[in-house]
Amino acid sequence: MHPRTRVRLGVSAAIAAAGAYAASRPTLMEWPSRVRPGFIAALSLASGVTAYFAAGSVGLRSGGLPTMEQRARRVVALSFAGATAVGVFQAAKGEAQSRLEGGGRAIEAGFASPPALETVSGGPGSLVDFATVGREGARFLGSSVPSAVVEQVTGTPLAMPGIRVFVGYDSAGTPEERVALALAELRRTGAYDRSTLLIGAPAGSGYANPTPVDILEILLHGDTAAVAVGYGLLPSFLSLDRVELAARTQSLLIEGIAADLAGRAHRPRVLLYGESLGARVQQAAIPEGSRDLDRLGVSAALWVGTPGGPESVAFHAATAGESITIDRPDQIPDVIPDPRPRVWFLEHDGDPVVRFEPTVAYRRPPWLAARPRGRNVPEGMMWTPGITWAQVMVDTLFATHITPGNFDSRGHDYRADLGGVVPAAYDLSVDLGTAERLEKALRELEVERARRVGEA
Q: How far apart are CA 33 and CA 445, in angstroms?
């Protein structure tokens, strides 16, 4: 073996060992037992091979430079391998998208019956064909809070049924047509006569978290309206190429509602809510931040688990003068500052979806440099160029572990936080006893939804 080759092999082995050590360190989320060994092996191999080729090429002749023929062969081989990998990926992605879109359209048996309320899209007199709202729309529309639950929490029965408007991706052909349908539904149901109107931004699959709407319907005794418009049927990680379309949909909806409310003697409080990709989408629809909120007459906004990246950093800056960022309800100030923050960001310190951004690959992020570290950021987690980025990327795959009714304030799961944060963000007065009963009711409502989802 040529001496240079032995040196390169030694260096690559050392770097592979260092990579394996770094990859074995704690991460933000627990991984299934079989994942970490494969991750360590892959990263150590990649580290070693990269180090070897960075020092020189296997094909060197007695320390000389590779010939033109060798270079040509490598270019052809790499091009072929790259084209093959891209082709396989695109084929697999297309097949996965087709299956997932089919699942997104399928309405489960437990939610298959159209709503019986005239105040809910898909119900009597609705302009929305219930068959077009998809799986997530049917869940959202079929989750109106029963009067008995309202009375259980507040001591007073439901004053009126809450309004829920949902327009699915298949309900109309273009964003403009979907939004026009949603606005028509809001007018039909009398949404603008309610005390509160919540504009929600769904995730990529159409998922619109019903829990914030449940909270409003309970605490305001049904004197509420909520609206969401879908822009796709795929999970968020496959919907990143739809952010522009989704943001346009949100912009059309918010602007349309503002136009409808202009000049009215009665104007409901307009609230914004977005979770995960929905938060990113809604923020993209109001790029001027506070100035857009002023112009559109928005009373309060709550964005939960916004994906990390330069867009998130820029939007935080655009609303810095009137925003608050918390990890959990315990961080809500006992005395809310005056003037009251209009913008609330709920972002777990240890949420990999929030922490995953390109700069982690080459720069130690503040959340790993801080002392003491934030909640659920392991003390033993270290930053290593490239490797930490890959770790956090894998963390995002395991960031949400849902057991219905078992709320866990960890990772990308915010269910345990909403009962406390939603009333604070939207300035709803809740005493301790009501808060405890509300939390219990939210868990019971989720268990019931899960039961209906599982019906054959």
A: 33
